[in-house]
Write a structure and sequence with these properties.
Blueprint: E1 4-6, E2 14-20, H1 25-34, E3 41-48, H2 54-61, E4 66-68, H3 77-89, E5 95-99, H4 107-112, E6 117-121, H5 133-140, E7 144-151, E8 161-168, H6 175-200, E9 202-204, E10 209-211
Parallel strand pairs: 2-3, 2-5, 3-4, 5-6
Antiparallel strand pairs: 1-9, 6-7, 7-8, 9-10
Length: about 210
C-alpha cells in the first residue's frame, strides 16, 4: 500500500477551522488546548450548519470568527458544498476539524483539503455509524463503546481511522450516562490527536492512518 506522510507548515501556529452543529464542547476543549503556545495551533474560524448552534455564540464570545452555512438556504447540496468551501477557505486553514458537524461534507470541500479534514465520532467505528452511536451501542448490548477520530472521505463515517478510545458499557448505563462518559473520552482523544498531527504530522494509505509520532 502507498503510504503518504502529511505535515503542516512550521514556524507559526497551525490554522484550524472547526465545524460544529451543536453546543461545541469539543470546540471548547480544543480552544483551551490552543491557549498553550506549545500546542502549536490556533482556531481561526468556526462554521456551523445551524444558526441556533450554541457553539457559535460561545466562539463569538471568545473573539473567534464564525460563519453559518445552512443547507436549506441553497437550492441543492452542490451549491451548499461550494458555499461551505468558500466560507472555510476564507480563513486559509491548515487543518479542518469536524467536531459534531451533522452534515456529510461534499466532494468540492474534500478535494480542497485532501486528507486534511478529520472527524470525531461517538462510536468505535466501523460499528454504529451515523448520529446515534451511543444509543445503537446500548441497543446492541455491546460491552465496549467509545469514540473514533478519522480522516474524512466521501462516505458516512468510513474514512481511515487515526485513533480510537474504548469506553466500557456498564450494566446500569442509560443513554445519558453512556453518552456523557463517551464525550469525556472523546474530547481528550481529540485534543491529543490534533496536537500530535500539528506537531509531528500523520500518514495515510488506502485503508489506514496514523501519527508520525508513533
Amino acid at each position: 500500500m502507498t503510504k503518504r506522510v502529511l505535515t503542516l507548515p512550521g514556524g507559526r501556529p497551525s490554522r484550524l477551522v472547526v465545524l460544529i452543529s451543536g453546543e461545541g464542547s469539543n470546540l471548547q476543549a480544543l480552544y483551551k488546548a490552543t491557549a498553550n503556545p506549545a500546542y502549536g495551533a490556533e482556531i481561526v474560524g468556526v462554521v456551523s450548519d445551524r444558526e441556533t448552534a450554541g457553539g457559535l455564540q460561545w466562539a463569538q464570545s471568545q473573539g473567534v470568527p464564525t460563519a453559518t452555512v445552512c443547507l436549506g438556504d441553497f437550492p441543492d447540496r452542490e451549491a451548499w458544498d461550494s458555499a461551505l468551501t468558500a466560507a472555510v477557505q476564507s480563513w486559509e486553514p491548515d487543518l479542518i476539524v469536524s467536531a459534531g458537524f451533522l452534515k456529510i461534507l461534499g466532494p468540492k470541500f474534500l478535494a480542497q483539503w485532501p486528507s486534511r479534514v478529520v472527524n470525531t465520532h461517538n462510536s468505535l467505528l466501523p460499528s454504529f455509524v451515523g448520529i446515534h452511536g451511543p444509543r445503537d451501542a446500548l441497543r446492541a448490548g455491546v460491552k465496549l463503546a467509545g469514540a473514533t477520530l478519522f480522516i474524512v472521505d466521501p462516505g458516512m463515517d468510513t474514512g481511515p481511522i487515526l485513533a480510537q478510545v474504548a469506553v466500557p458499557v456498564h450494566d446500569d448505563d442509560n443513554l445519558e450516562s453512556l453518552t456523557e462518559r463517551i464525550k469525556v473520552a472523546e474530547r481528550a482523544q481529540l485534543v491529543d490527536s490534533v496536537g500530535r498531527m500539528v506537531q509531528h504530522g500523520w500518514w495515510i494509505d488506502e485503508v489506514r492512518a496514523g501519527f508520525e509520532s508513533d
